[in-house]
Every structure is written in C-alpha cells, then in structure tokens.
Amino acid sequence: MTADLGLTSPHDGPARVLAASECAIDIDDVVARYPRMDHPSIDHVTLKVRTGALLGLLGPNGAGKTTLLSLLCALMRPQSGAIRVQGMRFDDHPEAYKDLIGLVPQALALYPRLTGTENLAVFGQMSGLSGRQLRARMDFAIDFAGLNEMAQRRVETYSGGLRRRLNLATALLPDPPVLVLDEPTVGIDPQSRHAIHENLRQLSVEGKTIIYTSHYLDEIEQLCDDIAILDRGRLIAQGSLGALLARFTGNRIDLRLEPQDAHRAAGVLSGEPGVQSVTAAGSLVTLATDDPHRRLPAVLAALEAAQLRPVGLSVGPRDLEQAFLSLTGTELRDEP
Ligand SMILES: Nc1ncnc2c1ncn2[C@@H]1O[C@H](COP(=O)(O)OP(=O)(O)O)[C@@H](O)[C@H]1O
Ligand SMILES: [Mg+2]
C-alpha cells in the first residue's frame, strides 16, 4: 500500500542526504527482536534525524515506538544494524553516549514518598549534578514542566498528569543535546500540554534534537515539523509534515463505511469512470480520481445502487489522521 500512496519508502532514505554534522541521530537498518519472539519488533528500520529537528514518531499500539527508543537509548541491543548519536556508537563510548540522550520513559520512574523537588535532586545527583548547577537545572525543570508550588508536595499526592510532568522534568536535568519523549503527555490537561509544547519548541529552536512519540495525531500535527510513522516494526513513511500531507491532497475522495462494507465498496467503485485507483484500509475507502467534485455524484449513486451507505465523506486535502489511517489501516487507540 505504501508504494500505492507514493510515500517515501523507508529504503529510499530521506529526500536529501544529511551531512554527518547535520545528522544528530542515525539509525541504520536496525533489526531487534525480544527473546522468544518469532517476529522482530523493529524490522530493518532506517531513520536519520537532523540536528535541531522536532520529530514526531507515530504509530498504533505495538508498532515498536518504545522499542525503537529503547534501542536508541541503548537500553536494548539490536540484532543487526547500527545506531549513531552525534556520530558516536554506544559500543565505542558507552558513558559518553548515554550522556547525549535524555529519555522521558513511557513507564513512570519516580519515588512516591519523596516530594517533587526531592525526586529532582535525587535524579540530578544520579546524573552527576551538584551544588549551584543542580539548583539551576532543577529550577529550569520545575518551570519547564509547570510544577512550581506542587514541587514541595509528595509525589504520592500527585494526579497522573502531574506525575507525568515530573517524569518529564527529571529527564531535562542533565541538559542533553538529544531528548527522547515516549508518550509524555498522556493524562496531562490540555493547558499544561500546550505549555509543555511551547517549551519543547523553544528547546528545538535552541538546537536540541527531539523525538516525540505519541498516538495523539493532533498533538504531533501541531508540534512537529518532521514525522516518522511506524507500523508493525517497520518505518512506513518519513518526511516533513508538509510533504507527507501534500501527498494526500488533490484528486481524492475518501469514504468511510462500516468496516464490513469497505472491501465490497472498493470493488463496486473500481470500475467507475474517472476513478483511477481504489484502496480500502479498515473502514476507509480512498479513490484517486481525475476530478473528485465532478465524479462524486456518480460515486455516491453507484454505492446507493449496491445498497452501501457511506458514514463519512471528504474530498480534497486530508489531515494527518486520514493519512495515518490510509497508511496503516489502523485507528489509533489509547494506551491501556
Ligand atoms: N518486553 C517485551 N517482551 C516481548 N515483546 C515485547 C516486549 N515489549 C514489547 N514487545 C512487543 O514488541 C512490539 C512493539 O512494542 P512497543 O515497542 O512497546 O510498541 P509501542 O510503543 O509502539 O506501543 C509489540 O508487538 C510488543 O508486544
Ligand atoms: Mg510505547
């Protein structure tokens, strides 16, 4: 289906070859498999991220996002392929390599009996900070995550969203050049999320390289300029958000049907005059046509004649959610 949609194949690489100095993260043909699993969770993934990029890593549950970040952070070793961060391999300089990356893990790692401030002090000391420098980084992190007065309260009294914000703050303490955030805003209220996005954007402007994983498409669409989409361990699309969406604009009609009707509808419509191609993914049927507005009445009439009723319809430019659905055939679901 990827080729059908004309998106960048993962094996084509990025549109422009990055010079080594511009490339913060270089993931080259990586394969990773968990013990006793038949299929690799990361399947020949190649991804280059330029310095200062704010990359959105998208994918449904189980796509391999957390696994890819674990590989990048050297918490897990690949079966094959190579990973470089700022030109450095973990195997050559394990300590220096780890200093390059700050991870905001999907699973919370906090001490519930300690206050927010105490948690930050512990994590800051673990990353080698002390004295005035530690204090300054803690102030920055508290401000960044909007913890402020809550920082003096014990973590066990925090809401889920507040814990996430503290989790984020701890990763910011050492000031690494690369930040990796795994679903960092799950359960965070929209206002705080917005503030965190603004702060991340500022870090990106200042030259930090950020990978932001989410299954909230609207969030990625608002925050990120570059997108990579993972599905079943494979990178199925990558590029700028603009380029990705541009592939989906133009002469298209998208019809949403009941899932059990989608394939029959695709069959009915494939012979229609002016319809160049039909793809069905999940409940979405996408037509490429010469003139969508002119062809629409006949398309709807053909469906009606086959007793098929679309429950949704759009013509022309598509948003990331539609692009995602077409690519993966999967609706995004909330994490359990
Ligand atoms: N510790 C593990 N042991 C075995 N399989 C795992 C483990 N963690 C993840 N997986 C499998 O690897 C795949 C990718 O999972 P994950 O990276 O967590 O996806 P995502 O973060 O995109 O939801 C899934 O099929 C998942 O079941
Ligand atoms: Mg995950």
Explained architecture:
The protein is an alpha/beta fold and 336 residues long. The chain folds into two domains: 2-246, Rossmann fold (3-Layer(aba) Sandwich); 252-316, Alpha-Beta Plaits, CATH 3.30.70. Helices cover 35% and strands 24% of the residues. It has helices spanning 2-5, 65-72, 94-99, 116-126, 131-144, 160-172, 190-205, 217-223, 241-246, 262-269, 292-305, 320-328, and strands at 23-32, 42-50, 54-58, 80-85, 101-104, 178-182, 209-214, 226-231, 234-240, 252-256, 275-281, 284-289, 312-315. The strands form three sheets. It has a six-stranded mixed beta sheet, with helices on both faces. Strand 11 and strand 12 form a beta hairpin. The longest helix has 16 residues, at 190-205. The chain is elongated, with a radius of gyration of 22 Å. The chain starts with a helix and ends in an 8-residue tail after the last helix. The model is unreliable at 1-15 (pLDDT under 50). Magnesium ion binds next to helix 2.
